[in-house]
C-alpha cells in the first residue's frame, strides 16, 4: 500500500476530571469528500444501524447459560484461587455435534459478567438471535466474562490493575473452561489447540473492556484472529496513550504484529470502533489514525476503523458495533456463496477460483481499499454498487469452471511472468451471438474491473450478448487487448461466439484501449493479422483520447460534466471530428456526474448501456 503524508497532530488541552484524565490531543480526519482518510489505503467506515425489529424477541431464540470456573487473582504475586462466573450465549439449535465460532465480549468500567446480556433489556441477546435467524452471520457462541475476581463494581484504580493482567486468566482459565464445555473449533484447550483454532475466535470489549482487548492483542495476539476494541485505546506506552502518544502506541502495536507468525495481511483483523459523540472519541480516533499511517504493517486487509454517527459512550453503540462486526468476522452460511459482508480476501482465496481468484480484484493493491464487498473502493471511481459487486462474485463462482480464459500460453508466461496477471473473464450470452470486449480503466496503473468492466459484461450477457472482461498489464495494455481479440477470433467456434460484428467497450484508460484497437490500421499493426475484422462499434466512457482517423470505428461516448479527469468537451470535439469524416457517432454528457460512474446505477446516467447497445446494433 502506498504511504501518504501524515496529518500533523493538533492539541487542545483541558483537564476534565477522572473520566477524561488527559489532554485532548486530536489527530483530525482529512476527508476528501467521500469518506477517504489522508491515506490511499484506508477509509473510515460508518456503521449501519441495527434494524428496529432486532430489539424484539426473535422466533428462533438462543439461550444464555451461566458457568463458573476456577481462576486466580493475577494482581497478586501469590495468585490466590478465585471462582469466576461467565455468561455464555448458545445459538438457537445449538448442537454438540457441530463446531461453533466463539466471541468473547468484555464489559466496561463498573460492569459485571451479566452486563453484556442484561443491558438495554437484553438487547444484545435479541440482536444475536435475529442475526442468526436472518442469516446475517454464522451461528456463534458469545461469552461475557469479567476481569473482576469478585464480579462486582470496583474503583478505577483496582479495575485498571485487573484489566492489565486479565490476559493470564483468558489464556489459562477462561478459554479452557468455555471451550472444553462447549463445542468450538478447539480440539484441545492447551495453547497449541487454542492457537490452532484461532481463525474461529474473536475478542472484543467496550471502554475499559476495549483497553482489555488491547492487552489481549499485546499478550495473546496468536490466540484469536479477530479483535473488536470499542471506544478505547492501548495503554502499553502510557495510560490513555492512544490519545496522547498515538504514534508511539501505534509503533508498539505494529511491533506486536511483526513479532508474530500470524502478522500478515490475512492473519488477523482489528475492527476498531467508536461513536462520533463518544467521550472516549480521541483515545480511539487518534490511535486508529496513527495505525493507518503504518501501511507496511496495518493494511485494509487487517485493520479497519469504524464510527457510529452520533454514537455516545454507551451500550447503544456497543450493540451496533457488534451487529456490524460479526458478519465480517464470521460470514453467514447462505445459499449464495458471497454476500455484502463477505471479505474480499475470502473471495480472492476461494478454492473454486484456483490461481486466478487474485485477478478478480486489482493485483496492484495500492489502488483499492475495503475489507468486505460492500466496502470496496477503487481510486478514481464513484458510485460502486455493492449489490452488483456481490452479484458478480456469485456469478464468477457459479461459472468458475468456464468463466476464466488464459490468453497466453504457459511458455509465454514463463518467459514473461507479468503475463500471469492477464486473462479474459467470459460472461456467456446466447450461442452464436455477437461478442463484446470490455476494458476497465485505472490510468494504466491498475485494472478496476469490478466497477468498470465486469458489470458491463454481466449486463451485456443478460441481453444475450457474449461479453469478455479483459484483465491486462497496465504497461502493456494494447498488446494484451490485441492478444485478447486474436484469441477470441481464433476460438470463436469453440467459444460459441460470432466472429464478426463485435464491439469494444472501455472506461477511462480502457476507453483509450478500445478506441486504438477499434481503429482498423492499429488493429492490423498490433495483432499482426489482416484476417481479423475491425470492430463494428467502440463504446467509450470518460476519457480524454483525442486522436481522429478515417479508420476509426463507429463510436458512442458518454461522460459526466463534472469529470475532473476527462473533459466532456474534449470527448465531444473528438466525436465531432469523427462525424466530419462520415463516421457514425453518438455523444452524451450527463449533468453533474464525476469520473468513473460505471453503469451509473441510481444516477442521471442510468440506462446509458441500453443506448450504447442500440448504437452497436445499428452499426454492425
What does this structure look like?
With 620 residues, the protein is α/β, with parallel strands linked by helices. The protein folds into 2 domains: 10-329, Rossmann fold (3-Layer(aba) Sandwich), CATH 3.40.50; 348-618, Alpha/Beta hydrolase fold, catalytic domain (Rossmann fold, 3-Layer(aba) Sandwich). It has 19 helices and 21 strands. The chain has helices at 115-133, 156-181, 191-196, 208-219, 241-244, 246-258, 281-291, 315-329, 344-348, 386-398, 410-415, 449-452, 454-462, 477-490, 492-495, 509-518, 520-527, 568-580, 608-618, and strands at residues 10-12, 24-26, 44-46, 63-72, 81-90, 101-106, 140-144, 201-206, 226-230, 269-275, 303-308, 368-369, 377-378, 404-405, 423-427, 435-439, 466-471, 503-507, 537-541, 554-560, 585-590. The strands form 4 sheets. Strands 3-11-10-9-8-6-7-5-4 form a 9-stranded mixed sheet, with helices on both faces. It has an 8-stranded mixed sheet with strand order 14-15-17-16-18-19-20-21, sandwiched between helices. A two-stranded antiparallel sheet has the order 1-2. α2 (156-181) packs across α4 (208-219) and α6 crosses α7. The longest helix has 26 residues, at 156-181. The chain is elongated. Mean pLDDT is 90; it is low at 1-40.
Q: How are the elements arranged and paired?
A:
Blueprint: E1 10-12, E2 24-26, E3 44-46, E4 63-72, E5 81-90, E6 101-106, H1 115-133, E7 140-144, H2 156-181, H3 191-196, E8 201-206, H4 208-219, E9 226-230, H5 241-244, H6 246-258, E10 269-275, H7 281-291, E11 303-308, H8 315-329, H9 344-348, E12 368-369, E13 377-378, H10 386-398, E14 404-405, H11 410-415, E15 423-427, E16 435-439, H12 449-452, H13 454-462, E17 466-471, H14 477-490, H15 492-495, E18 503-507, H16 509-518, H17 520-527, E19 537-541, E20 554-560, H18 568-580, E21 585-590, H19 608-618
Parallel strand pairs: 3-11, 6-7, 6-8, 8-9, 9-10, 10-11, 16-17, 16-18, 18-19, 19-20, 20-21
Antiparallel strand pairs: 1-2, 4-5, 5-7, 12-13, 14-15, 15-17
Helix pairs in contact: 1-8, 2-4, 6-7, 14-16
Amino acid at each position: 500500500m502506498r504511504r501518504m503524508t501524515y496529518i500533523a497532530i493538533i492539541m487542545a488541552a483541558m483537564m476534565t476530571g477522572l473520566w477524561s484524565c488527559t489532554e485532548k490531543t486530536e489527530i483530525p480526519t482529512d476527508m476528501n469528500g467521500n469518506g477517504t482518510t489522508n491515506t490511499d489505503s484506508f477509509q473510515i467506515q460508518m456503521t449501519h444501524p441495527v434494524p428496529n425489529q432486532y430489539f424484539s424477541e426473535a422466533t428462533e431464540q438462543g439461550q444464555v447459560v451461566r458457568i463458573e470456573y476456577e481462576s486466580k487473582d493475577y494482581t497478586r504475586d501469590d495468585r490466590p484461587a478465585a471462582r469466576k462466573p461467565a455468561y455464555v450465549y448458545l445459538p438457537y439449535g445449538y448442537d454438540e455435534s457441530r463446531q461453533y465460532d466463539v466471541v468473547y465480549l468484555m464489559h466496561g468500567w463498573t460492569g459485571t459478567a451479566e452486563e453484556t446480556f442484561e443491558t438495554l433489556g437484553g438487547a444484545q441477546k435479541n440482536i444475536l438471535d435475529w442475526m442468526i435467524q436472518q442469516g446475517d452471520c454464522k451461528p456463534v457462541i458469545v461469552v461475557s466474562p469479567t476481569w473482576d475476581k469478585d464480579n462486582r463494581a470496583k474503583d478505577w484504580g483496582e479495575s485498571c490493575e485487573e484489566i492489565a493482567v486479565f490476559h493470564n486468566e483468558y489464556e489459562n482459565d477462561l478459554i479452557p473452561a468455555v471451550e472444553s464445555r462447549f463445542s468450538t473449533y478447539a480440539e484441545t484447550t492447551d495453547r497449541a489447540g487454542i492457537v490452532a483454532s484461532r481463525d474461529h475466535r474473536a475478542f472484543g470489549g467496550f471502554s475499559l473492556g476495549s483497553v482489555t482487548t488491547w492487552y489481549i492483542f499485546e499478550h495473546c495476539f496468536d490466540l484469536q484472529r479477530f479483535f473488536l476494541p470499542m471506544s478505547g485505546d492501548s495503554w502499553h506506552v502510557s495510560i490513555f496513550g492512544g490519545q496522547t502518544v498515538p504514534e508511539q502506541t501505534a509503533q508498539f502495536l505494529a511491533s506486536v504484529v511483526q513479532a508474530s507468525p500470524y502478522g500478515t495481511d490475512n492473519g488477523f483483523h482489528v475492527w476498531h470502533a467508536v461513536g462520533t459523540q463518544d467521550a472516549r472519541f480521541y483515545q480511539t480516533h487518534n490511535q486508529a489514525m496513527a495505525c493507518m499511517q503504518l501501511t507496511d504493517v496495518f493494511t485494509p486487509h487487517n485493520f479497519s476503523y469504524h464510527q457510529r454517527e452520533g454514537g455516545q459512550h454507551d451500550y447503544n453503540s456497543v450493540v451496533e458495533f457488534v451487529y456490524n462486526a460479526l458478519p465480517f468476522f464470521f460470514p453467514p452460511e447462505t445459499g449464495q456463496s458471497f454476500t455484502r459482508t463477505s471479505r474480499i480476501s475470502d473471495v480472492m482465496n476461494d478454492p473454486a477460483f484456483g490461481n486466478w481468484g487474485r485477478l478478480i480484484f486489482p493485483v496492484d493493491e495500492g489502488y483499492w481499499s475495503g475489507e468486505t464487498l460492500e466496502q470496496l473502493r477503487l481510486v478514481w471511481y464513484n458510485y460502486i454498487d455493492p449489490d452488483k459487486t456481490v452479484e458478480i462474485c456469485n456469478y464468477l463462482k457459479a461459472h468458475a469452471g468456464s468463466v476464466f480464459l488464459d490468453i497466453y500460453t504457459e511458455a509465454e508466461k514463463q518467459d514473461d511472468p507479468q503475463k500471469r496477471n492477464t486473462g479474459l473473464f467470459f460472461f456467456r450470452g446466447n450461442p452464436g451471438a455477437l461478442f463484446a470486449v470490455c476494458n476497465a480503466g485505472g490510468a494504466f496503473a491498475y485494472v478496476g474491473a469490478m466497477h468498470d468492466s465486469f458489470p458491463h459484461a454481466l449486463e451485456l450477457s443478460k441481453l444475450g450478448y457474449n461479453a469478455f472482461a479483459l484483465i491486462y498489464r497496465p504497461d502493456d495494455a494494447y498488446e494484451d487487448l490485441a492478444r485478447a481479440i486474436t484469441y477470441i477470433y481464433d476460438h470463436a467456434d469453440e467459444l460459441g461466439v460470432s466472429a464478426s460484428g463485435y464491439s469494444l467497450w472501455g472506461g477511462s484508460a480502457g476507453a483509450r484501449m478500445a478506441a486504438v484497437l477499434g481503429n482498423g490500421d492499429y488493429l492490423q499493426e498490433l495483432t499482426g493479422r489482416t484476417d481479423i475484422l475491425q470492430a463494428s462499434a467502440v463504446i467509450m466512457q470518460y476519457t480524454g483520447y483525442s486522436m481522429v482517423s478515417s479508420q476509426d470505428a463507429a463510436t458512442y461516448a458518454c461522460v459526466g460534466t463534472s469529470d475532473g479527469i476527462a473533459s466532456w468537451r474534449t470527448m465531444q470535439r473528438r466525436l465531432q471530428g469523427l462525424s466530419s469524416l462520415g463516421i457514425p457517432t453518438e455523444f452524451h454528457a450527463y449533468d453533474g456526474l464525476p469520473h468513473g460512474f460505471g453503469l451509473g446505477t441510481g444516477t442521471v446516467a442510468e440506462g446509458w448501456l441500453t443506448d450504447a447497445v442500440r448504437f452497436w446494433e445499428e452499426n454492425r
